[in-house]
UniProtKB/TrEMBL annotation:
PROSITE patterns: FAD_PCMH
Molecular-function GO term, any one: FAD binding
The enzyme's E.C. designation: 1.1.3.37
InterPro entries, per the entry: ALO_C (IPR007173), FAD-bd_PCMH (IPR016166), FAD-bd_PCMH-like_sf (IPR036318), FAD-bd_PCMH_sub2 (IPR016169), FAD_lactone_oxidase-like (IPR010031), Oxid_FAD_bind_N (IPR006094), Vanillyl_alc_oxidase_C-sub2 (IPR016171)
Pfam families, per database record: ALO, FAD_binding_4
Lineage: Eukaryota, Fungi, Dikarya, Basidiomycota, Agaricomycotina
Name of the protein in its database record: D-arabinono-1,4-lactone oxidase
Keyword Phosphoprotein attributed: no
Keywords (A to Z) from UniProt: Oxidoreductase, Signal
Length: 585
């Protein structure tokens, strides 16, 4: 069927045999099915740069817009989506060239490489390594750079975006351009897919090294007494797992060591999960959420948290276990309270799953939240989080609350630009019908995320949290123009190379250019359930829920979806909460 489509559509467009195409509207979604996109002019899968140039030229002649699409689409915002009225999408899955320049100490890789596979390839073929990587190795190089995907380090450049030293890009007029000057590259570091079809990326590399992880449990007071920040400043990398329910923290700290150090472990952070176990977990999460049993959710999070320092138990969505890279046996004896696990950087910086918890069948789908703020906002943000958890208990059996630290970036669309920042992240489990039924944690998530965005100079990761931080909302969350001081330079550059906006999509027009008409499309019945909107009326929540005003510091207000019984219990305590806020902030 695809082959037939290719033949007639290819002939029609004048580039037969150069690119597979699916003619007619191509519908696609994010990996967890919440973000739904359509490309009216179809999907193309070019095999070469010449193919890309042909497609772009044809699209320009037909006044169509172009967006790169990746195989799995791990972002959960409309950044993924084609322009909805006249777009086509183009997959670079066949772009997997790889060259190593020994003199310059750089690698140049095609956009289709998955980050962990690329890291492994350069380690094994050339004995070199990236200095740091995002934790999830299934994302593509192109996707990682487009949204600024990061790991966690204050001492090393923590993302491929910030390491970028060259791109090869097909521009709107069909020209192929190699860009290596730092001033121009700054725009490409977080580009949201708007600066052309980037076929290849060049990054610096260092001699292959090993990473030694040490995991240590702490009381949650380390979050606010300066200990955590000190640990982050002293380490090569750090992942901090906070379980507010048990008031405890596990800090997993990275130390970079010589490649001759003993150890061949693998960080199985986002592991393969047996289908049968996925099915059990999925059923359990649905039952717990539909019955509102927060206490059982908390018991599940406690189990996850305990495993952080034991390396025993079954693999779940996130299972920060270490195992031997060859035998695949958990390296339990080398892991635990204050003990270490060591392996090659390509096995320890980034994790990869083939049969992930979120693969079909029996996929456990989730929303992934990531909100970034300046380092000096961490302590007040944690205090605020504790304040609201004390009123509206919450637990995260999939993830704990993850805290990561990110070294300053000069990218235009990273904020706070030029300053180190911290990311507070968590995952919520979908209901079986996520468009109808509310997640157990919905009210809390609404509250905490609005608080971060309104009170703590925060902004959402471009590919996480959902659309609401970027679109119309009744509480006045700042839009990109207020958040990114270098945004005018980005938009000026974008317009200079693509005056007709061929590579723009609705998401960019809404979030970066502030288009109010597009932003308004995210306000519709039940829009809060999928994090498209902040509720302004009850109809934006689930049936039976109330859109409720709750206080934030500095006399601000959040709007959150609550069940009637949650609302009754909470409103009784709001006065005391305002006093807490007045005392703390
Ligand atoms: C389980 C999980 C773990 C995650 N872990 C992390 C993490 O550790 N750190 C982090 O920061 N984020 C993380 N994320 C978020 C994720 O890294 C980002 O959303 C990333 O952008 C997804 O990459 P992708 O390859 O799926 O690209 P997509 O999400 O499909 O695309 C993102 C954007 O990139 C554009 N694009 C892709 N390739 C090109 C190209 N060649 N030229 C132009 N535009 C292009 C697309 O058009 C789109 O606009 C995680 C997400 C999940 C689901």
């Amino acid at each position: 069927m695809l082959h037939a489509a290719r033949t007639w559509f290819g002939l029609l467009c004048g580039f037969a045999l150069v690119a597979f195409a699916q003619a007619g509207e191509y519908d696609y979604t994010s990996f967890q099915k919440i973000i739904q996109c359509k490309a009216p002019n179809g999907l193309f899968t070019p095999n070469s740069t010449d193919d890309v140039i042909s497609i772009v030229k044809q699209a320009a002649a037909a006044n169509q817009s172009v967006r790169v699409i990746t195989p799995n689409r791990w972002s959960i915002t409309d950044v993924l989506c084609s322009e909805s009225t006249n777009g086509l999408v183009l997959s670079l899955q066949n772009f997997k060239d790889l060259t190593y320049n020994q003199t310059a100490n750089t690698v140049t890789a095609g956009s289709g490489w998955q980050v962990q596979k690329l890291s492994e390839a350069i380690g094994q073929m050339f004995n070199v390594s990236f200095i740091h990587l995002p934790s999830f190795g299934s994302i593509t190089v192109g996707g990682a750079v487009a949204t600024g995907a990061h790991g966690s380090s204050l001492n090393h450049v923590p993302s491929l975006s910030d390491n970028l030293v060259g791109v090869r890009v097909v521009q709107a007029d069909g020209t192929l351009r190699n860009i290596t000057d730092a001033a121009t590259l700054r725009h490409y570091k977080v580009n949201l897919g708007t600066l052309g079809v980037i076929t290849d990326f060049t990054f610096p590399v260092v001699p292959l090294f090993k990473v030694q992880w040490t995991t240590t449990p702490y009381d949650e007071s380390v979050l606010t007494n300066g200990t955590l920040l000190d640990l982050a400043k002293q380490s090569d990398g750090i992942y901090v797992y906070w379980n507010p329910h048990s008031k405890s923290v596990v800090a997993a700290v990275m130390k970079y060591v010589n490649s001759s150090a003993p150890g061949n472990d693998y960080w199985n952070y986002i592991p393969n999960v047996l289908e049968a176990f996925r099915a059990v977990q999925k059923t359990e999460y649905e039952i717990l959420q539909s019955t509102g049993l927060t206490s059982l959710f908390c018991a599940a999070e406690d189990q996850l948290h305990a495993r952080l320092t034991s390396n025993t138990g079954l693999y779940q969505l996130i299972a920060p276990y270490f195992e031997n890279a060859v035998t695949k046996q958990k390296s339990g004896s080398a892991f635990g309270n204050g003990l270490t696990s060591t392996g090659f950087s390509y096995n320890m910086l980034s994790s990869f799953c083939d049969d992930c918890a979120f693969n079909e069948p029996e996929a456990i789908y989730f929303n992934d939240f990531g909100i970034d703020m300046p380092l000096d906002q961490l302590v007040p943000a944690i205090t605020f989080t504790q304040n609201i958890i004390s009123r509206l208990p919450v637990c995260f059996p999939l993830s704990d609350i993850l805290i990561r630290f990110i070294k300053a970036s000069d990218a235009d669309l990273i904020s706070p630009s030029g300053a180190d920042y911290v990311s507070i992240e968590w995952d919520t489990t979908h209901r079986n019908d996520p468009f109808k039924d509310p997640e157990l944690d919905l009210g809390w998530v609404n509250w905490v995320s609005q608080g971060y965005l309104l009170n703590f100079n925060a902004k959402s990761h471009w590919g996480k949290t959902g659309n609401f931080p970027h679109y119309a909302n009744p509480v006045g969350i700042p839009l990109a123009a207020q958040l990114y001081p270098q945004l005018p330079e980005f938009t000026r550059y974008q317009q200079s190379i693509d005056p007709n906006g061929m590579f723009l999509n609705d998401f960019y027009k809404a979030s970066v250019l502030g288009n109010a008409t597009i932003r308004a499309t995210k306000t519709y019945p039940k829009c809060a359930l999928t994090y498209d909107c902040v509720c302004s009326t009850d109809e934006h929540c689930a049936a039976g829920q109330k859109c409720t005003d709750v206080p934030l510091p500095a006399n601000k207000t959040a709007k959150i979806c609550l069940d009637s019984d949650q609302q009754a219990g909470l409103l009784d305590t709001v006065g005391a909460l305002v006093e807490d806020f007045n005392q703390h902030f």
